[in-house]
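Quick illustration for those who missed Monday's session on complexes.
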Amino acid sequence: MTTETTAVHRIYNFSAGPCTLPLEVMQQAQADLVDFGSASGGKGLGMGVMEMSHRSKPVVAVHEAALASLREILELPDNYQVLFLGGGATFQFGMIPSSLAANGQRVDYTHSGAWAKKAIADAKAVGADVNLVYDGTDNSYTTLPDPATVQSTEGSRYLHLTTNETIGGVQWKAMPSCDAPIVADMSSDFLSKPFDVSPFGLIYAGAQKNIGPAGVCVVIIRDDVLEQCNGEQINYMNYANHVKGGSMLNTPPVFQIYMVGLVLEWLKGKGGLAWASEMAEKRSGLLYDAIAEAGGGGYYSCPVDAAYRSTMNVVFRLPSEELEAKFIAEAAAQGMDGLKGHRSVGGCRASIYNAMPLEGAQALADFMREFAQKNG
Ligand SMILES: *Cc1c(COP(=O)(O)O)cnc(C)c1O
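Prediction with pyridoxal-5'-phosphate bound:
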């Protein structure tokens, strides 16, 4: 990978997704885009990674390396299969229940916010018997249940949860131990910390938050869950067909998978999930401290219960919407972009995924203190 970073113009990008990617990865991709394999200097294959057949040797090698890296980073046991699918995490909202529960079978869902809501709607749409074991409507999705109190119901095919609500900024800190396998939407905190995969029957994550560009979704499925899938799906929606095809049932999103492979290599080089977790704690700690202390305290507020605050998406408010608009504009002028909260909730949000340098979080924390002082 090229290490020349000095002359490149980069800002701190706090966008929720697509979001910032490691500079080294972007620079390697820049070279490979035109001449695959030329990043280290010299000649490559004379064609770009986007131009090659997905069945060609180099692309198959890229594909397999990305799958192997993911297995290595997660220390994934052999009874889990890894797939790179199209359609984003959103497609999984429907593919999962239609594979496991379309014939009116019972499934348990936790309703923790905007993303859970979409998953629930699609499970209902395909005809599953959806039971809510937790519903955060009353607290406006600002907290989560104690995992020890969450249990699946009799006969449930799975219990679904959203490990990190990207819009609301709430994050599960531990998993429930329930009888049914857990199915988790990990889109916005996948690979941000080590975790035990054994409670999970299925994990899915759209790449564009922590591990690459939009357009590919990682699906990890346990063999016993795979066997329970009904086979009445159209070809593409049948997990078993993807597994049989080595995650190359059809033309996969080659470029996205190539990028995911580079990000995974980068993550391994940094120190894997232990490093990611340490950095996530540091970055989010800087921002939550600034929220608590800036301007003598109380200038910023975070609506989320302190026990479940996200290490990936830090949401906060200022004393007025006018000040929020001013804050977002002035931050952008200083090279800190993407701080506007989701349009459904307003306020501010700093998304600080794996590729956000610690300096970015520090710069934002400093700016928050300065802004509070000047505009208090
Ligand atoms: C972004 C996001 C999604 C949607 O991902 P797409 O790839 O756009 O379908 C789903 N769930 C969560 C938690 C997300 O953050």
